[in-house]
Design a protein that fits this description.
The complex is a heterodimer of chains A (about 110) and B (about 110).
Chain A: E1 5-7, E2 10-13, E3 19-24, E4 31-37, E5 44-50, E6 53-56, E7 65-68, E8 75-79, E9 88-95, E10 102-103, E11 107-111
Parallel strand pairs in A: 2-11
Antiparallel strand pairs in A: 1-3, 3-8, 4-5, 4-9, 5-6, 7-8, 9-10, 9-11
Chain B: E1 4-6, E2 11-14, E3 19-25, E4 32-38, E5 45-50, E6 54-58, E7 61-66, E8 71-76, E9 85-92, E10 101-102, E11 106-111
Parallel strand pairs in B: 2-11
Antiparallel strand pairs in B: 1-3, 3-8, 4-5, 4-9, 6-7, 7-8, 9-10, 9-11
Classes of the chains: A mainly beta (about 110), B mainly beta (about 110).
Chain lengths: ~110, ~110
């Protein structure tokens, strides 16, 4: 079974630029999550989708972050404009029903 | 504000000994609790989850939950050098399909 796929693996951008991350969940997983993990911290939930609907985006900085999940499968997370404090690993995870969440390898973002 | 607290460590344990990892959580509405292992530069992987008060054993791992004290622990018996990693404690409000609140993680070092 293929795991959660994310791209790119690494990204370096200048502050005020925009960036987008892509996630392809495990086939059949209805629930998709985006987490932000800053170095030395635990992952922080940014947004949760159930199929193509948003379940929880209470911790998403909506003035600069946006996310969508087209057709209830792939998802993209965008940051515009980026700030230095957005430097982190962005983790995508998916789950089926009430099963455990599986994480992708993450995208390491560095904002300079 | 939901919070999960963990001692960041490092926690150093001799090989073959029992490693004891602890966390506390603030939200009394939390119903599910998870322990993830994260190797440096890798994504979190689920070790165990527990929903009910008491102990749950899986191989060398035992998770313990005390909802009255809002306390979760993970015991690792016969610790191996390969167990050296950061252990993340997380809480959820219901089944595994909910977004999780993570602690900062405890860095565990198993000394050969």
């Amino acid at each position: 079974e293929a795991g959660v796929a994310q791209s790119p693996r690494y990204k370096i951008i200048e502050k005020r630029q925009s960036v987008a991350f892509w996630c392809n969940p495990i086939s059949g997983h209805a629930t998709l999550y985006w987490y932000q993990q800053i170095l030395g911290q635990g992952p922080k939930l940014l947004i949760q989708f159930q199929n193509n609907g948003v379940v929880d985006d209470s911790q998403l900085p909506k003035d600069r972050f946006s996310a969508e999940r087209l057709k209830g499968v792939d998802s993209t997370l965008k940051i515009q404009p980026a700030k230095l404090e957005d430097s982190a690993v962005y983790l995508c995870a998916s789950s089926f029903g009430v099963s455990e969440a599986f994480f992708g390898q993450g995208t390491r973002l560095t904002v300079v | 504000q939901k919070e999960v607290e963990q001692n960041s460590g490092p926690l150093s344990v001799p090989e073959g000994a029992i490693a004891s990892l602890n966390c506390t959580y603030s939200d009394r509405g939390s119903q599910s609790f998870f322990w993830y292992r994260q190797y440096s530069g890798k994504s979190p992987e689920l070790i165990m989850f527990i929903y009910s008060n008491g102990d749950k054993e899986d191989g060398r791992f035992t998770a313990q939950l005390n909802k009255a004290s809002q306390y979760v622990s993970l015991l690792i018996r016969d610790s191996q050098p390969s167990d050296s990693a950061t252990y993340l404690c997380a809480s959820g409000s219901g089944g595994g399909a909910d977004g999780l609140t993570f602690g900062k993680g405890t860095h565990l070092i198993i000394q050969p």
